Amino acid sequence: MALKDLFTSILAKPVWEDRAHTVIVGTGAGGATAARVLAAQGVDVLMLEEGAKLVTSERPRDVPGALATTMREGGTQASGDLSPLVVLQGRCVGGSTAINSGIIWRMPEDVREDWIANHGLAELVDAGEMDRIYETIEEELEIEETGERVLGGNSALMAKASAALGLPGKPITRNAARCEASGECLQGCPGENRQSMDTSYVPKAIGDGARLRTHARVDRVWIEGGRAVGVIGQALHPETRKPIGRFQVRAENVVVAAGVVHTPIILRKSGLGGLVGDRFQAHPGAAMLGRFDEPVRMSYGATQGYEIPMRERGFKIESLSLPPEMLAARLPGVGAEWQERMAHLDHYAQWCAQVRMKAHGRIRPGLLGPSISYAPLTEDIAKMQDAAITIGRMLFAVGAREVYPGIDGCPEVLRSVDELEALAATPWKRTQVHLVASHLFGTAVAGADPSRSVVGPDLQSHEVDGLYVMDASVFPTNMGVNPQHAIMTVVFRAAEQLAAKAGARRAA
Ligand SMILES: Cc1cc2nc3c(=O)[nH]c(=O)nc-3n(C[C@H](O)[C@H](O)[C@H](O)COP(=O)(O)OP(=O)(O)OC[C@H]3O[C@@H](n4cnc5c(N)ncnc54)[C@H](O)[C@@H]3O)c2cc1C
Ligand code: SF4
User: Fold this and answer.
1) 439 is known as an active-site residue
2) Binding site membership of 121 for ligand 2 (Cβ less than 6 Å)
3) Less packed terminus of the chain by CB within 10 Å, N or C?
């Protein structure tokens, strides 16, 4: 922002002011769930969202248009490391759920037990309470296993490969019972058949009396006498996205749910310190592509319909269909060789791995936006190599004539298992692997001990009364499975406790 704009926006009268009992920053898995619970209990809720409310049927179907409209930095947000980690996040009503594949997993029991034993979170992740909430969410968000009718060629071929190698594969459970197999989850479900937050909990909360203001980017929490009393931010022009003036909201409670990258930025700019922005964790992923003699027909089917969970080896393999533009960009070769591959665009399968890495990164406010640093450990890259080689073996097991590993310094095209095994023989380096992360955790972790956490078991800040964090930032560890269901469940639980407190105050 130009210096002149900065002064104008700070000194000028706010372009708008508002009041609410509870103001919620962000409308992703965490923020929308908090709004859904609080509004249902009669709490006066105002949701603030930096991005736009998109009408699903009007969302761009082409990939560049879709990424520019819905994703943070058009999908180019990355860490500042020498080998950057691409960090994908949604920036629109619904947050990252508006662009995700709807994969649903309950929190694994070993993760729950670790949170109790090592982070003092017994109340937050009480088994009985979580089961009750899982069931509510599963019913409300139409959660169902992907049926054969919509599995599509990419996932069906992966099922065969899994069986061929004796791996524990299964169809993916998703919040998309009415899926019509368009393979376009990234661009937004054309028929609103996937229950992302923009089509489920945000409208539900509004139906229960909550309000929503879009193009409202919160800069900081307004704190008076050690208590949160509201938020201050910039109203953005809906087309240019440039700041058009300051806004402020007064509230009794502030819930920050701006996601793992932006929640710590808001907290740090509000004067909070300690572990804020530390313990950033992820499930970075990489993919391999295989070419087959027979058509695979990746363009028909659930975007992600089949998975092979291998948590004991530290990863999970998933089918991942690509829109044609992205698939074309991934094909190796130039000139006639590339054109020949392009002519067979229907003959490719792509499977990816999400790796439960042990590395902890860090997020801090930077001059031009969040500064992200993340360096995978040697053992993390070894897990990634194990996962990628397993995908290669699977592709060859079901007859791939070519496999494209996408690993720097290695052949672009593999034509036999022997060539693949040669790739397995030497440990890969971080600089060879192109990593992308969409499952993010930490940066405002929950815990009973204030010296080891940012928020308590009720997700209220240890430092500032009335300030809550309700998104994936509070997760003290990653999980090895897709996170949205666990995020919604943990937030649901904490929001119920907050609603009970608000009710008790109203009654007093
Ligand atoms: C491409 C992709 C595919 C994925 N697939 C799956 C899947 O299939 N299954 C699964 O379980 N998980 C999946 N995930 C991960 C899952 O969507 C996220 O873990 C989850 O949505 C995170 O929830 P959150 O509330 O922490 O943040 P988000 O959902 O990212 O929401 C944060 C919100 O805050 C808003 N915001 C940020 N800063 C500000 C500010 N300063 N002021 C106002 N608003 C702000 C953002 O615009 C956004 O709307 C996927 C993610 C991506 C990106
Ligand atoms: S595959 Fe298509 S129809 Fe199915 S949930 Fe995704 S976007 Fe919706």
Assistant:
1) yes
2) no
3) C
